[in-house]
Description:
Blueprint: E1 4-6, E2 10-12, E3 23-24, E4 31-33, E5 40-44, E6 47-52, E7 58-60, E8 74-76, E9 82-87, E10 90-98, E11 101-105, E12 112-116, E13 119-124, E14 130-132, E15 146-149, E16 155-158, E17 174-181, E18 184-192, E19 195-199, E20 202-207, E21 223-230, E22 247-251, E23 260-267, E24 278-290, E25 301-304, E26 310-312, E27 324-326, E28 333-334, E29 340-347
Amino acid sequence: MPITISGSTGIAGVDGSASTPAVQGTDTNTGIAFPAADTVAIGTGGTERMRVDSSGNVGIGTTSPGTGIANRVLAINGTDAGIHFLTSGADTNRIYSSSGEFRLQTATAIPLVFYTNNAERARIDSSGNLLVGTTNSNPVGANVSGFKAGSNGETMISAAGIIPFYVNRKTNDGTLVEFWQDGNVEGNISVSGTTVSYNGGHLARWSQLPTNQRDPSLLKGTVLTNLDEMCVWLDEEGNPQPNEQLNKMKISDVEGDPNVAGVFVSWDNDDQTYTDDMNVAMTGDMIIRIAQGVVVQKGDLLMSAGDGTAKPQGDDIRRSKTVAKVTSNHVTCTYADGSYCVPCVLMAC
């Protein structure tokens, strides 16, 4: 077939192939070919590398960008195929595949951002945190709406004027949420019909000692009593934060104390600012401390012994001084002073 060269049609008359392109330079197996009607391809080294088909689909590493798994306007195929974006000459931003995985990569400290309808909807920041609806890595602390799935496992949900979190179990009754600690199941929230149950826990609250400092000698299960003085927490400017209901406590030092508040659980080791707050169990499953030599039996109602421990109440009538009911004679722990703890159901409120 004759080759025509003119100012109106350019070079015409030869379709060529990957091995012998229609348009080529001194390298005879690299150039442009026309493998099908309304289709143009670019090849190097005798192999087709890129094609634009009759529908305008672009294929890189594939000769069928508009069909099958590559049915996209832009189809990229290959062992290490991808789109690379150069920043200041460095090959740092790219979209590619490796070992069957699809990867998006950005340069150091540059987030990967996702947009819909001309607005940012989500991003993965330079620390690996997934942020949805916010660019703040602490939406709860910043009091802004958004979702965070932290690279360290931390999850935050913050919403304005709507329910921020939903749990729905379909088909049958059972566990809604399960709680683990150090690889062990410690409790759950379950649903049965219209009843939701919190299993394996107690009602607790935060409090402080009157000294506003930790007492290292305070043992888990120690009986506490209520004080009139309120807990104090300050904001960043040093002003007291609102506190309507959380009062301070001390170790109960009155036998049969009617102001029992509950029992000591632990100090607050998660808060980096208020490290002297204590967690106090008030109602529900817990352990309670009994003095050495004091015998309790399953079913006993307990009251304050006046030294931080509990003792049998002496009758089976629940009173204002009743702090707990023994649920098992099993000794869960024994302290250096000989006092010990047994399981109970707290009744401090």
